Amino acid sequence: MLLHIVARGRIGRSPEADLVARYVKRLSWPVRITELPDIGGRVPVIEPQTRLVLLDETGEAMGSLAFAERLGRWRDDGVREVRFMIGAADGFDDAARAQADLLFSFGRATWPHLLARAMLAEQLWRATSILANHPYHREG
């Protein structure tokens, strides 16, 4: 199952880019990162069997185990791609939220977009590690 991060803004050379690269390199699942300008740009076509996840402050703040279980369920159901959308500074409108399969939040605090991308990469590594019974995740 492809894990596809579509993010507004360019990460360039930065400490956040290093963190994203570190976690993406560890993933054994296929990963694609698509960067779009803050405004405009072409969002890649959503193919059948894709689940759309918007990182959104109004979303569900699920723990790592629940997030891993959701990814595992989608994988087991034959989903081909999970697309994670990181919006511009103003986030997503109601129409975009209505199309999402999941609104996912890193809590009620506001996070810089580049840091949110790094946090997402880490959570994807953590979730796939949990599903592989890897000892990386420790709970409790």
Short synopsis of the structure:
The chain has helices spanning 15-26, 64-76, 94-99, 113-131, and strands spanning 2-8, 31-36, 50-60, 81-86, 102-104. The protein is of the alpha/beta class.
Give a structural overview.
With 140 residues, the chain is α/β, with parallel strands linked by helices. It is built from four helices and five strands, in the order E-H-E-E-H-E-H-E-H. It has a five-stranded parallel beta sheet. The model has no long low-confidence stretch (mean pLDDT 92).
Our estimate of the beta-strand percent is 15-25%
Write down the secondary-structure element order.
EHEEHEHEH
Number of helices: 4
Shape: globular
The share of residues in helices is 25-40%
Cα(first) to Cα(last) distance is: 29 Å
Overall mean pLDDT stands at 92
The largest sheet has its strands arranged as: 2-1-4-3-5
The main pleated sheet reads as: 5 strands, parallel
Write down how many β-strands occur, each being a DSSP E stretch of 2 or more residues: 5
Rg from Cα: 14 Å
By secondary-structure content and strand pairing, the structural class works out as alpha/beta
Uncertain regions spanning at least 5 consecutive residues: none
